[in-house]
Design a protein that fits this description.
mainly alpha; 8 helices
């Protein structure tokens, strides 16, 4: 299985999960991202993974990621990168040993790719409801986020944003 195939299957499974697909950013989260920028948010994600998920043993595993309070926490729950049990179930990384740097980078990449969920959800909704909308506006935080959305839309839907 290629990396792209793995990601495609993973995001389809996440999208089909009632629990995982129930996580959405609130306006205060969007404002925070706008204020800090995506690179800072990515660094926060790296820090959270390193401190909360990477150790071999986590005393409060399953409870270490709050359900709100930071956009990365929302992304972690949406992408099942929130605890070692979810990481085992969804990403096939066994608990009980420290996550390698490659594994940590993968988990951060998955959270970053969560923007793809938005593109896929909107595209599916538009396909299921043809003619219901004249315009879909994307809220973009910076040029990097725009490039992620554009690449995803181009890859999956052969369109340009």
């Amino acid at each position: 299985m290629t990396k792209d195939e793995w990601y495609r299957q993973l995001f389809e499974r996440l999208d089909n999960s009632k629990f995982r697909s129930s996580f959405h950013l609130k306006q205060k989260d969007i404002d925070y991202i706008n204020k800090k920028g995506l690179e800072t948010i990515r660094q926060h994600a790296k820090d959270f993974i390193t401190k909360r998920e990477a150790p071999a043993y986590i005393a409060n595993d399953g409870k270490q990621t709050p359900m709100r309070g930071h956009p990365v926490f929302i992304a972690q729950h949406a992408t099942a990168t929130c605890c070692r049990e979810c990481i085992r179930k969804w990403h096939k990384m066994q608990p009980g040993k420290e996550l390698s740097q490659v594994q940590q980078d993968y988990l951060v990449d998955v959270m970053e790719l969560a923007a793809k969920i938005a593109v896929r959800t909107v595209a599916r909704f538009l396909q299921e409801n043809p003619g219901q909308f004249d315009l879909v506006e994307w809220v973009l935080f910076d040029s990097y986020t725009e490039s992620v959305y554009e690449a995803e839309a181009t890859l999956y839907y052969n369109i340009r944003i």
